[in-house]
């Protein structure tokens, strides 16, 4: 009996101690996350007042938590929208820069073309008088064709130039022989002998080569700026994958659920997460750098004795020289001094434009691979001891050695899936369709497999013993086709 009483007293004593310990360990308040969660615009309904068990969580660590399943889902979607917004903002900044370069160069080139046309009218009105007054449409149509080609028209520039010289020959021949009755058939026969007789000397051949080279380069350059901006816009709008959303949620808002709102992601952790999320974008790096390099090489052609300014501004004088060769059969008057004076006045402006564009192109080369660093710069833990106090996906500590790897090896871009892609194909003759790529045309294009680069790894909690592989279901839009078609175009100019 005595032993039973002693055993009962001991049991009661142990039970009382245990009950006392439980009663003394008070669950932490969730007031901080309640305030934070409502501040993000979410309803307060169902938010716990104090920590609850976290077995229901699917993304955050399953310890004691202040987040319900609905809260976890809402914050995951929020983290995804925020990062996608940052990507769009970064892309918009680059788009604005490229757009500014396009407007500056495009405005300058059209101003140059208009100046050349005005010079031709002024010069020919005093030199060729009645002939120009009666035939000004021939010259106006030449400049109209040049503008249309520069703007992306599908006309063949060589054919347009040949047509100009043939029509000019007809009009000059008729003007020089007004006293005779000359029929249209005879004039047509004369124009067909242009290549054989060389009535204008070597000017048409020389001018065709220089004009074609200059306008193909200028058109390709502005198209490169436009397409580059479009590539950035479209890639920046690609939604992040579900795997990425979970990783960003775990990095960004899981600390709030654990009552560690002040903990910011570890530097390497943030870098790994965003490198994994943006691995597809990083696959554009090689083509993007190649594009920038090629455009810089094209811009180098805008200077020199056969540069953009000299060729465009010399058009009136070279045409006049050719006309005098035919009509008077004497040495053309030397008007090169005037051309040099006019081109020198614009050379400084062109030099500044090309220098500015080149600098921007060089700066944009590492854009796709630098995105993770850019996005992490404002959100990671910094300062002394940061790596000991930062969030590593589970708690405050250095980055966990347990890693999860995402396999992006299935990332392919098929050109056959590309619709409504602007074709910017040109060749050395100055022809170019400027057309829209249709399903039928694209379906005949070869399949492009983007090379897979080494992938980063995600830090994940120790409970994930297996290395899990996840495929990315979404593809980037057909931007690689944009880049490659543009590169082919530009490389043909080398």
TrEMBL record:
Lyase recorded as keyword: no
GO cellular component: cell surface; extracellular region; plasma membrane; side of membrane; synapse
Domain of life: Eukaryota
Entry's localization field: Cell membrane; Secreted, Extracellular space
Keywords: Cell membrane, Disulfide bond, Glycoprotein, GPI-anchor, Heparan sulfate, Lipoprotein, Membrane, Proteoglycan, Secreted, Signal
A UniProt-annotated Pfam family: Glypican
InterPro entries: Glypican, Glypican_CS
General function of this protein: Cell surface proteoglycan.
Record-linked PANTHER family: GLYPICAN, GLYPICAN-1
Protein name: Glypican-1
